[in-house]
Amino acid sequence: MRVEELFIPHIQKFLKENYQKEIETFEFQQTRKEFSGDVTLVVFPLLRHIKTNPVILAESIGEHLKAHVNIVTGFNVIKGFLNLELSDDFYLNVLDNIFEDKTFGKQDQKAQKVMVEFSSPNTNKPLHLGHMRNITLGYAVAQILDFAGYEVFKTQIINDRGIHICKSMLAWEKFGHEETPESAKMKGDHLVGKYYVRFDIAYKKEIQELKDKGIPEDEAKAKAPILLEAQDMLKRWEAGDERVVALWQKMNKWVYEGFEKTYKRMGVNFDKNYYESDTYLLGKDIIKKGLEKGVFYRRPDNSVWIDLSDEGLDEKIVLRADGTAVYMTQDIGTAVKRVDDFGIDKMIYTVGNEQDYHFKVLFLILEKLGYEWAKDLYHLSYGMVDLPSGKMKSREGTVVDADDLMQDMMLTAKEISDEHGKIDSFDEDKKNELYNMIGLGALKYFILKVDPKKRIVFDPQESVDFQGNTGPFIQYTHARIQSILRQFDGDLSLKTEGYKLDEKERDLVKILDQFPDVVEQAAAQYSPAVLANYTYDLVKSFNSFYQNLSILGANTEQQKLFRVKLSASTARVIKTAFGLLGIEVPERM
Ligand code: ARG
Questions:
Q1: Whole-structure pTM value
Q2: Which of 82, 160, 164, 448 has minimal Cβ neighbours within 10 Å of its Cβ?
Q3: What's the CATH number where 74 sits?
Q4: What's the 448 CA to ligand 1 centre distance in angstroms?
Q5: What range does the domain containing 62 cover?
Q6: Distance CA 317, CA 429 (A)
């Protein structure tokens, strides 16, 4: 229960008896740092109902609460703010409750189903830095919503068909000499990605040759033989050509095995995958029906479009002239199928902001098709990630590969940890596990602490710093607390009573107590950043407590017990919060 709820009945009674007013809602806030007190009642809103001087009203409510609520030990009034001071016993009790609540922060079930889509790669190349932001963000949002009481389904749409896939397939057929992940000693997704790049090289060469013959660039791009071949392959795929389908299955399987390893290392998973190859036909059907209803129209070349100029957007293609499906087609089918399959109340698409327009259009199309639930779709859009050396490009094969980046992060973490030299007793496996945890924690936290909309420049060195607003700093604080707990040999089941809190201790209890509200807020805003920055504030508050007061060397047993419980509760909230962000915390570091 939140402490305000203790006061409200008393205030209501007081206002009724003295002013004959029945008031439902009250505005409370944390007392601002510069004033003394713990909780503040904002009196101004009450003046709408009660015509009096705010200071006088605040004083009289304060007197009443002090007389009738035993945890209120004092108060002061600054203008229309009534700052209430709460007793030490109250905070001791708060801490005991936090300490004993093994799922502290977890919210009650909300009876609402939310589907969170993230990652959703194409099967023509490996995952890259942009996916890492996507996956980190989407996974954290899913975890936060789950903890906030929603029933959550993590999903992907795997864009496993289309012209880009045919490009890798064709290049492998032409230049691959039957190469396999085993023969090449490569992860399957990397191997397929190699042929995607290989296609591009051949394509560019052909364009140049055509241009040298005097053919204009646009025409050369459209007529390059290898591109025509890829287009033909797509048609054969859609027609179910056995050889093409078999090749497609073989190469996609390689890719999935590769993705699986990457997801595993990143520590993420999915409840259900959707495949474009399963949903694009449904998309086509829906478009056919929409065409009959007049939602779409057909152009003379046979392609199908929607005109969204009334909504301030333009016209958008939903089926090509040759009848093949486009990216939008499958998204229509996928959305309908997901709602059918799961009866979800809300769906969140974690997709980069270069697709803002696509999602506007998708949601509008679904609305125009008459789907009630179209209004419950949300595009969780995020900005680009750069490395300090420059923008990442996906077409030219100069991407920052996700697997390489994780490996680099691990090595960077190793350098820094070895300098610290606190884990000499670890064997090699344990060390590597720790480096991985730190490296990934650094990367994920760096991404999550900022607003998703912001573009970020990922700086590996800065992210892994053991000081400052970084993942490793927070992980380190967790490990430091664990080391204190290992040294404590008292009985933590005892209650702390009659103990007088230091200001640092009180501040820390207050921050811990905010955790459930922070979870709600992060869930409502789909914002892991809210949770990340809360965790950082918590850790700063803990460190200030830790540097000023001795825990194991406390003056009395009571004091020691309280401080150890406070530390243990802090460690648990760090671990829970980081768990929601998809970041592990070590016991030693
Ligand atoms: N596969 C797409 C890409 O790599 C992203 C898919 C996003 N999700 C969606 N429902 N369209 O660009």
A1: 0.94
A2: 164
A3: 3.30.1360.70
A4: 21
A5: 4-86
A6: 53
